[in-house]
Model the fold of this input.
Amino acid sequence: MVVPFTVALYTLAEARAINPAQKNRSRAFILKEVMSLKTITFSMTTPLIDEYRKKASFDVNTLRNIIDGEEFVEAKPQEDFAKALAAIDALETFDQGTAARYFLHANVFGSAVRSLGTDRHAETLRQTEQNEIVGCFCLTEVSHGSNTQKMQTTATFDKGEFVFHTPNIGAIKCWAGNLSHSATHAVVFAQLHTEGRCQGLHSFVIQVRDMKTMKPLPGIAIGDMGEKPGDWNGVENGWMKFDHHRAPLWTLLNKGCDVTPEGKYVTSFKSQSEKQSVTLGTLSVGRMGIIMKGANACILATTIALRYSVARQEMPVFEYPLQQYRLIPYLCGGFIIKIFQKRFQNHFVEYMWRVMSGEKSEELAEMSKEIHALSAAAKPVATWMGIEALGEARRACGGHGFLTCSRLNDLRESFDPSQTYEGENNMILQQSSNIIFAKLKEPHTRTPMGTMNYLLDTPKQFSGFSNCIVEDVLSAYKYLIRHLVKTSMRDYEKLKTTGKDSFTIRNEIQVHRAHTLSIAYGEHAIIQWGLEFVRDIAEQKSKQVMQRVLSLYSLFVLDKHLATLYISGYCSGPEFGDGIRSSLRLTCASLAPDAIGLVDVLAPPDFILGSSLGAEDGRAYDRLMEVFLKHENESPPFQKDLANFLAQRSNNNSKL
Amino acid sequence: MVVPFTVALYTLAEARAINPAQKNRSRAFILKEVMSLKTITFSMTTPLIDEYRKKASFDVNTLRNIIDGEEFVEAKPQEDFAKALAAIDALETFDQGTAARYFLHANVFGSAVRSLGTDRHAETLRQTEQNEIVGCFCLTEVSHGSNTQKMQTTATFDKGEFVFHTPNIGAIKCWAGNLSHSATHAVVFAQLHTEGRCQGLHSFVIQVRDMKTMKPLPGIAIGDMGEKPGDWNGVENGWMKFDHHRAPLWTLLNKGCDVTPEGKYVTSFKSQSEKQSVTLGTLSVGRMGIIMKGANACILATTIALRYSVARQEMPVFEYPLQQYRLIPYLCGGFIIKIFQKRFQNHFVEYMWRVMSGEKSEELAEMSKEIHALSAAAKPVATWMGIEALGEARRACGGHGFLTCSRLNDLRESFDPSQTYEGENNMILQQSSNIIFAKLKEPHTRTPMGTMNYLLDTPKQFSGFSNCIVEDVLSAYKYLIRHLVKTSMRDYEKLKTTGKDSFTIRNEIQVHRAHTLSIAYGEHAIIQWGLEFVRDIAEQKSKQVMQRVLSLYSLFVLDKHLATLYISGYCSGPEFGDGIRSSLRLTCASLAPDAIGLVDVLAPPDFILGSSLGAEDGRAYDRLMEVFLKHENESPPFQKDLANFLAQRSNNNSKL
Done:
């Protein structure tokens, strides 16, 4: 695992040169340090943060082991795998750009060749694993982001070869990471033309640069897309334009289909949708990682802002209830989304394993749809919360949060595109509700992961709080989801009578209805799985604090649906709304003594966190001064010019 | 006005060198172009955006004149002033950093000397106006941002001079723009010590650098605070530490107070609060400008995103109702906040004029409080909406919105600190509710600007919609505000019985109560003044479209309070909530044909907008390609190393 890592890091030093803020983070530094994770020791130097540490009602190391899972503690034989996972985790929080370059080469490009290709691509696969080539993944085109079937690049059979061509500006491949300067090979999606007709979208693995000169091959133009903010500036997001570029027939990734030397198209797929479901896995793997980005954003944001909030000796800003209210819910979000993502990833790995092993069951088809619906809902929910958390953390740190040395704005820039790649959040929410609507037409809604089981139940109106607020929140969600299903479908039927097509109608029922439905479906699943996780915690103190963490997350996300719950008829009068909000305030206040301890559970070590405000020792002001003193009494060249300018003005005026 | 402008721009070229993204915006370029504003002509080249332009129900130029006000059309004698205002406006949308440097020298430093000083500061004032010196304003200290009375820098009388001293790290002056490398003079706030005791916070104007060498004077250390994102990186936000620095007695800005050569403190102020109210004006002037930043952020965000939304020839994303819903409310926000800010600024100028002319009436004291309450509420409301707009616009442009050439992330970074400076938004909201609570103890709540007149009325519950949705929204706000006043005060009294001090109690009633109250108070005033502005529009087509613009803004901001309205008992059942939300969707849809025309009313010219996606001609894809083609077939030096690395790996593996 260490070897492909090196390739991903290869151009880091150069890429970083573009962004002066990152200059000091050198490749050697990462390689040396990144393997020494999870060995956090607290240096008890500053009284105040340590005072807050002592307030925690639980043991930090115990809870960390519960959240990280057993493998880190007991699974000795897999220690290398665990180390590698920790390295990827660390790289994600340290620099998402480098993480992406590694992931795009080894996982996205590599996985595509592995899962869409056959034996004849074994040599390409070996070269990928041995880092003899650098791969990139070309799907998106300039004017088609989220609709894969509309791609316009063509690969036309001609005299025993494929001819790749870009018919217009809008069909130029773009956003492919690693492409601009480094990639030697690419997985390319194109419309396959042979036997005089288009056979649909297919994937190919082609060489794009000469291995010695690194110049693009004939018929290929490649370039960078220009500057981007944050970590992504060094990712080499490139564009590629084909002008009748020729490649051999074996470049077709031919699992389930092929083109013979005579140009005959053959396929073992029974339907278009069966072909698509093979591609699905390759496209969905990214979303799993992005859900974790939402958790990471919450964790980094609140680590920095909460530690800074206790840095001031007299009356730390942490003591203001509003400051707690602004930050602690996002800390809870970091925990609950992380817990959800780990379970979801396990399901996904199981699913992929069954697909790879050739299983073709009804249940697996169901699972494919459920994974699609859930990832399309959870990715927006997680990433929006992460971006919100980073914005709120910056504001909660006041002006000092705006300094680059706080890393908060840098983090927001770096996490920002997570809302867009692998499916723009609002677009994929629509996919989620479409799957739910289709499911509702079936006789039952039981699903392999159980996230839709309740869809046909008739939920009850609010009649008072139970002794478990999370169960109360889940009940409200079930009613809300039922209400949104009903209003979406009512308006769908109403619009159908006007003669509009289903594409238009689905777009017209998004606002306040199908869009909210998908969000609520995702949040319900996250809370449900959180509840099941917390129930299974054996150690009592960890369990108790995690119950409150889950409660606060649940109340915080439900609060945004309160108005719709009133409109739906779930509740009336002040009881429910007041009850939810006072629980919110009380749970938040009850977690205040645990907040710094909870931060310690999830926070990366200081050199990964890279924030002057958020260091573990709580000495934010000393670290700020270190930054300030670097710039003491500077004398840039223009000062002389300015002095001359002012003197000249003064002379001119005295002459008048 | 052109002259101080030059000083502000003086170091721009150097400052820009820090940020490569800005390199191409040279000083000469700005100076040449910035005066040629408001001469927009449309080049009718691309069909699609022009198709959308034709859909507008109103005349763009007529509406622009209505929004900009008569002075630009009729006031020929003030043409220079109008040009200067336009230049500042343009500079604000072009580069807030440069605008800030100009403003800090001429307006903040200059105004402080003018309004807090006396005749003996006339020469300093002349030098400021003639740009013979460069000024900065030093109030904030490292560990004290928003609480001015807690400042710790001291100015102690000693042998006929003041000795300035920084007692500890937390008392170092910071965030002073222009200070790091350029400022020769500074207005400094310090605790004045003489006659053996502290006389409270006073202001001084002192020289900080040698005019020839530009080195800090003895006993002064100055430095930059380090890198910041966006436009603010070139602002020279500096820190200053005093080590027994000596300055003459005349440096005290001595309006209403003085220290004699013998060290005797004399004052004509009758009370501490009278002294504070003199300083108030200087501190409040900034907030006016920041409210406009909120409007500018909305305008720039929606100009870029809406024009890009109609760029794609087949099925522009603008046609999706969700896309319209994500953007058009913020466009309306730009209009309504701009209208509000102009009226508020007129009130403020009148107030300042009366203060300067020595008026000391009951009404003026009332106006001072109302200005404070309203600016403390409107600044958060405006800037939060602006930041939201920029985030939503970036997302609505998909991946291409993330490219630096879209300018959207850059704008978000540049507007981000508006939420913090001149009072952190959440902190100043508390000031607003405190003034409201105090007002409620008086026999009536009539105020000079009329924004609190309704506070003691007993508003009615919802009983059905009228034929004016804006009036309906205002009625709901009145009920909401009354409810929030009641719950805040109820909880205040409850907490008082527990023996807590009023500072703590005021903090504990913020979440869901006093905090929301201030926001609602600000939004109500913005809508009310919007309504009065729209009522006065004579031209019918402009009036009709502006009625819908105001409706959409009003519905959009009220929607966020729907849950609280249900909890308050204002409404029950689905009617009100469903009514508000369906009006929201319908009004938004009704504005869709006008959206591109409305953008044209407020959008700055292309060279100021500086976005590849948002250009007036709608040719976003062509402009993107211009950026892409700059990077075609680049061959950075590391490519050779990478080729060698890959070849070596290949050789090693073939040897095995």
